[in-house]
Give the backbone structure.
Amino acid sequence: MSRVFVDGLPATVRPQDLVALLAPFGAVERVDLRDNATAVRYAFVDMTPDRAAGEAERTLNRSRFQGRTISVLKVEGGSAGGSEPVGGPPDGDGTRRTTGSSCLPF
């Protein structure tokens, strides 16, 4: 299993939207969708096969999705833990806050 970090998502994005975005690269096993204090959403997505995350990063990083430029990065270490930034991605002031989470297995 491989994991991607997707940042810069609009507040209206749903887990199903990420499944549709990433399905061309492999099977989406789990979507962990979160909000930060600036109402920008980010997600960790577990995918199979192992090569799926790298292919998604090469194709989708810095692409446009629902009117926003997103970052798609392969997380080293996969979904085995220890790969998530503490408290989520940094806000504009450099702090890390997580205000909400929605985690769905598929």
Summary: The chain has a mean pLDDT of 83. The chain has one domain: 2-77.
